[in-house]
Each structure stands twice: as C-alpha cells, then as structure tokens.
Amino acid sequence: MSSKMKISLGILSAGLVACSLIVIYSHQSVSMAEAQSQVKSVLPDKSGKGNPVTAASTEVRAASGMVAVSSNTAEEQRALQAMELITQNEILMLYVKRETAEVAVKDKRDGYIWFSNPVDREKDPKASPLYKSELSSQLLVTYYNEKGQLNTLNSYDDSVKKKQFKISSVDKGIKIVYQLGNIPKDYGNIPKVIGKQRFEERILGKLTDKDTREDVAFKFRLDEQKQVYEVRKLQDFVAEELSKKLEAIGYTNEEAAKDNKDNGAGSSAQEEGPRFTVPLEYTLDGEHLVVKTAGKELQYTNAYPIAMLQLLKYFGAADDKKDGYILVPDGSGALIHLNNNKKNAEAYNLPVYGSDGTYDVKEKIQTNEITRLPVFGIKQNDHAMLGMIEGGDAMATITADISGRNDSYNTVGGKFRVMDMDFYTLTSGTKKSSVPMFGQKPFQGDYQIRYDFLSGPSSNYTAMAGKYREYLVNKYALKKLEPAKASPFLLEVEGAFQKQASFVGVPYQSTEALTTFDETQSMLTALKEKGVKDIGLRYVGWFNDGIRHTSPSNVEVVGELGGKKGFRKLADYMSKENIPLFPDVAFLEKYKGASDAASFLDRQKAKIYKYDPVMYVKDTSKFSHYLLSPSALAKTVDGFVSDYAKLGLTGLSLRDLGNEVNSDFSPDHPINRQDALNIAVGGTDMLKRQANKLMVNGGNAYSLPYANIIVNAPTKSSRLNLTDEDVPFYQIALHGFYDLAGEPFNMQSVTDSRDSLLKALETGSNIYYQWYYSDSSAVKDSDYNELYALHYGDWLDQAAGFYKEAGTVLNEVRSYVITDHRKLAEGVVQTTFENGKKIIINYNSAAVQVNDKQLEAKSYWVGGE
C-alpha cells in the first residue's frame, strides 16, 4: 500500500470487492487515475471466468481532501450474478434473466450496471400488486376496446407469468417476443366447422371406443339448420386432449383447414378478447444500447387495436434514496428533481414535436412549449443515462414521474402511439351518440430508442447534451460554424398583409404593405448607421397576398411591396452589402383553399381555428388555416422551386416545415405522422438544394441536417408543476453548429427586454427583432392584432444598443460548443464555452455576489481565456 494514501475497503457477503471505495489524501496529492489503478475488482460473469473492472465508477466527489467513488448496491451485484451474459463489446455487456425477461447492461468503463427493472421492487412498501407487476414489466400495452375505451396490459402479468414469451439470439443482442393476453394454443387439427355427414363418417366413425366417441361428440355442437358441427369453446387442456384423439385416427391439420374452408370458417382463430404479439429487441452498438420494436411485427385483433406502446418504463429507475434529477425536453429543457414530493402535480406526459394538428382538439386549456428534441435522461448519484428516440419519434411521447405516487421510483422514458382514434358523433333528432373511428394506416417501421451511459463528476445535463450533440454530428455529419467577423443580428420584417376593406359598401380583402422593399432597404441602412453591420434578414409576406399567403406552388411577388422589380433591387442591395436574405414561406399551413387539405379522423377537412382565451374552446369566428395533406407536399414544393429558381435568389426561411408535423386521416390516402415526417424531410432536402442556405423556424430535430439558422428556438419550458427548473439543453446541444435565436426580443412575454439580452448571452444566441416600417396602428382591429407595436422606429435604438453591448461577446463564442452550464445561485447561472470563455448572468433585480464577484442587478460578467 502506497504511503500516499490510506484505502478502506468493505467486503461484500458474496465475496466481491466492495462497491464503495474511499480514498483519503495525505500531504501529497494523488490523481484519481492513480487511486483507481490501485484497487481492482473481479466480478465473475456467467462463465465464471470474471471480467476485471475498476471497483468504482469514474464519478468522483472531491471535498475537504476526500474522494468518494460510488457503484451498484450489493443486491444489484447479486442480481447480475443470476443473469446470463448474452453478448459484449469493448464497452458494454448485455445480460438477460430468462425466467423474467429482465435485461441489464454493464458498462466496462466503470463497472456500473443498469437494469431494465428495479432489483428490489418486491420490497417496495408503496407499490400495490398491480404496480409491482408493472415494475417487473418491460412493456406496457394500452389498447382500445370496441367502445374506444382504454385498457392496459403489462408484460409481466399478461405474458411472462403465463410463459407466453420466447427469447432468441440476434446479431449483437437478443430478441424477446411477448404474447400478451389469453392466447389460445394452436391445435390446428381441430376443425372449427365441419359438415355433419363428414364429421360422423371421418371422425366419429373412426373412433372405436364408445366413451371416446361420446366424449369427442360432446365437444362439438350440431347446427341443425346448416347441418354442420361447430367446435365448442375449449380450455387449453381439453383442446390438447381432443387434438391427440384426432391425431390418433389420422385426422390432420390440412384436413381441418379444408373442412373449415368448405364450411365458411376463416383460418384464424375466433377472437376471444384482447391478444397482442409484441417483439422487443436489444442490441449493443458501440457504447450504446439500442432497443426497438418492429411495427410491422406487431400483432393484434381488429376488435382490440393497440393505442400506445411503452418500452422499458423502469429502465434506469432511481429509487427514493438517490440524488439527481430527470431531464425532460420540454421546450429548451427542464429538470425534475428526484423525489421532489410533488405528488399533487400531474405526471410528465408531452408529445415529441408537439400535438398532431389533425387531432381535432375541442378544448385547449393549456398551451405547452413544443418538444423539439426526442431525448430524455436521468441522473442518479454519480451516473446518468440518456435516451434518444431515433425510430418512431413523430409517434412518441416523453413520460416521467417521481417516486411516492404509485411506487418508490423516479422514472423517465418514451411511449409510442400505434393506432389513432377519435369519436364520431351521430345525431338523430335530439339524440346523440359517439362511435370510435380508428386510423387506417399504422406506422410499419421501427419504434426505436438508443441509450447512452455516463459516469463521473460531470454526469449532468450538460454532458447529456454533449452526448446528444455527438450523436447528431455522427449521424448527419454536421459541421461547426466557420469563424466570422461578427455574430449576426437577425431581423424579421413583415411585408404585406390582407385587411378588410369596402368599396361602395361591398366588403373585400385588400392587400396592404407594412414594409415595402424600398422601406426594408431604408431600415437596413438605418441599422448600419447605428453600427449594426452584420445582419441576416427574414422577410415574411413577400408573395401571394402577403403573410397569410396562398399556396406556394405558384409564386407571384406582391405588387404593393414593389413587385418583382423591387424585390430584385432589394436582393441586389443586400448582396452588395453582404446581408443574407431569407424570404419566408409556409408549406404546411394553408391559409386559403381546402382542396388538398388533410382530414381529421371524422373525415372533415383539417380546419384550424384560434381558441377563445377565456372559454378555451375553438372560436369558429377566427379561422387560422387548413393543414396541407402530406400527400400534396411534394407537388407543392416542386411548383415553388420551379418559380423560385427564376428569381435567382439563394436563401429561404421555412415557417412550418421544421416547426410542426401532422398526419392525414383521409380514407383515400391515409398517412400516419411518422410517414408525414419523412415526406417533410424529403421536401426540406429539395428546398435546401435549391436555396443553399435555410433559416428554420422552431428547429425540430428532423430539420437539423438542413438548417443553417434557427429562429424561435425554445428558450424556456412549459413550467409544468412537476418540473423544478429550466435548463438550456437545446442550446447546449446545438450551439457552435447553428446560428440560434429565440423569440424576437420585442415579441417575448418578458416585461424587461434586458432579460432577453441576458438569455441570449447565457445561451450564446443571436439578437433577434421583428419589425415593420408602417405605423403600429396599421394592424389595429385586424386579424394581425398580435403584430401591434412593431414599428421599427420604436425599437431601433434599443436593438442597436443591445447589439453593441453584447455583439463582441457573442462573436467570441459563436463557433464554440458549450462545455458547462450550471446554476450558481437563485437567479444566477454560468455558461462555459469550448474556448474557455465564461459568462455569469444575474437575472435578479438586486445585486449579488458569487464566486468572489459582485454582479449588479440584471448584469453579467465575462471572463476566462
């Protein structure tokens, strides 16, 4: 033993080296690598040969000269010994317990083990028998009955306990096929229906024993009218006995099938309640565990379709003794502290990419931030797990909950929508009844989640974002931003809009200019005179009647703005001044014309209205837009690209292709949401090739391979009751690869625009304003009231001042990733960038002192290399 340290070891009852290691430093310092190298543990695998691993995780807590390293409990170590090693690579080992279908993943880098189900679940004092069964399950299947009501089966009670599952090997992993429900055993030589004469001659006539003949005859009932025998409902052991008797007289499966066919009986068994076949496949891919269910292999009866499929709800669950948090991708990101005791708050349950627009929502009580990234994570003590949904993401919902509600575990995971359903109301006089209507084209691809594992003192949400960034870079070959002279000032200009007017008492829609092309040039010149020289312009409302334009399949520049000649003049000016131009276009939201609109499940056109802010119901007097059918997108994009190419422009702003994704329930061409996403990706790819540079509104994950600039990126969460704090996970994951901006500074809900500046500094985001040239009263009492008070003259000085104040700092960090983000105190956060630059933000209305630094109210400190 080195004189540099004293090492205290506890020995497990199973003869294993203890799961905890304490290293106490003396006068001379010892590196963590040296400390770990001195203590090794051999944890035997199933073969008994053992796998040498470091006895502790790489997580280290250093305080007062002491370093503690954590690992699994003794109970978890023993649980692993009862499992079978299936496969391994240089980083991970995959285990299964064949009796219960549980799996575990062991990380060779630190020896830590992640279990699909809590190993101590039977001791849980809070969980009822039902929830203990769920704690033992790897799958939860929610299905519809004939009335459209929801019920749930779990893989433990409804498959494993009934021994209705099979485990087989696949490349780099295993596949478990669960059969849930009352699955009748297939005795193929028992005819469902057989002619009376044939039954008496071929079967009864061949049975020589009287008792056997009577017993067999009793198991069938005679239909006198049809002159056929039908088999009765039989228990499995009775059917097995009958099958053997028929086999003894040589009656075969083929004969039974022919008798069934001759008498009008289908080849499938009579439906007797909900029954499901669900495959679940686990494979190792480098440092990742990949879990998937093949949509095309799902089996269910027409009477009981699958509504939702939840995979591995309890994978990585943290018990009520763990410290840490759950990461959810609500907006920019949010944390749910483990065991926060918010049992009166609803569990977290938000769909990826927001709600499907073709779900006809009658009431909208709460509007949540959109989930832009299909990820989730959990940190427990010194370890963290990140889940990335990469198959079926448009059908996915992120779920999370804390301990204490139904059981003693904190959980996070993903579930997938399989079948869509809505109620169709039938009316007859004063009577109404609702019948369920189901979608016709379920997703046939893979529902897939990829898990990554982290250990160490920095196993936090910043590290999770770094892992997700690494995943995106590898998947899409993303390139970092090139260094530039300055970080861009992003400006959105509103061009033309339509307003109600009248002529000799006859009402009509008049197209009016908010900002002509010449006036746009004047605003840009005014900005440059104020010292704002690096600008990116998003021009909204430049063609086909303005902001709420007609179909982009044909492009006609608005004459009231200056026409095609004026547009070309503006483009030439901006090219000369090196100002990128991004004309804005909406493809999915149709503001006029329903001929190619998508359909709701009730077959009505997907017509979207605004909601009454008081009653929360649709306000049918305030039409917003139709939703374009995904089947019409390719043709619409083709038409637009053809016309846009004639303008000779580069650059394009996508209003909705990266912001929403919707199904189409038309009976003629049904398209599920995942297939709709793939169609949107194809359209975006075509537009990228034409325009070269794309500005994307919202920035959903599937748009990232094509985006250069992302505006209206999320900067906060929905502030749900269950969550505890917001984090800029979105910006941490993407900064350095995209020019990012949140909402326009003058359109945010904050009362002090300086908060917007501070948020931009915290996240390394660009300054972004929304303006028009006309007086603010131009939109008063119109459908564009939300654009009130955007006259550029009211904001020019503030925008130029903010840019001058923060521009240098933003430019210094623009092309670098965020390597650390942390909360230093209430209302005080620190962001560290790849180049060593640190920014500390004080959002408080009073001065604070942190890290020996005095920060005035609403101020910041910049330092580092």
What is the rounded Rg? 32 Å
Number of helices: 16
Average the pLDDT over all residues and give the rounded result.
Answer: 89
User: Beta-strand percentage?
Assistant: 25-35%
Q: What is the number of strand segments?
A: 52
Sum up the overall morphology in one term. globular
Q: Can you summarize this structure?
A:
It holds the Pfam family DUF5696. This protein has 16 helices and 52 strands. It is α+β, with helices and mostly antiparallel strands and 865 residues long.
Tell me about this structure.
InterPro entries: DUF5696 (IPR043751). With 865 residues, this protein is of the alpha+beta class. Helix content is 20%, strand content 33%. It is built from 16 helices and 52 strands. The strands form twelve sheets. Strands 13, 14, 18, 19, 20, 23, 24, 26, 27, 32 and 44 form an eleven-stranded antiparallel β-sheet that branches. Strand 5 (61-63) and strand 6 form a beta hairpin. Helix 12 (633-646) runs parallel beside helix 13 (673-691) and helix 15 packs parallel to helix 16 (796-813).
Present the secondary structure layout.
Blueprint lengths: L4 E7 L5 E9 L6 H6 L2 E4 L7 E4 L6 E3 L2 E4 L4 H8 L2 E5 L3 E6 L4 E6 L5 E3 L13 H7 L3 E6 L5 E5 L1 H5 L4 E6 L2 E9 L11 E3 H8 L6 H9 L1 E4 L4 E4 L4 H13 L4 H10 L12 E11 L2 E7 L4 E2 L5 E6 L6 E2 L4 E5 L5 E4 L10 E4 L23 E6 L2 E9 L4 E6 L7 E9 L3 E8 L2 E8 L7 E10 L5 H16 L12 E6 L1 E8 L2 E8 L3 H13 L5 E6 L22 H14 L4 E5 L3 E2 L16 E5 L6 E10 L5 H14 L5 E3 L18 H19 L2 E4 L11 E3 L13 E2 L2 H6 L4 E2 L12 H11 L4 E4 L24 H18 L4 E8 L2 E6 L4 E5 L5 E3 L2 E3 L3 E5 L2
Parallel strand pairs: 33-36, 33-46, 36-37, 37-41, 41-42, 42-43, 43-45
Antiparallel strand pairs: 1-2, 2-6, 3-4, 5-6, 7-8, 8-9, 9-10, 11-12, 11-21, 13-14, 14-18, 15-17, 16-17, 18-19, 18-20, 19-32, 21-29, 22-29, 23-24, 23-26, 24-44, 25-28, 26-27, 27-32, 28-29, 30-31, 34-35, 38-40, 39-40, 47-48, 48-49, 49-52, 50-51
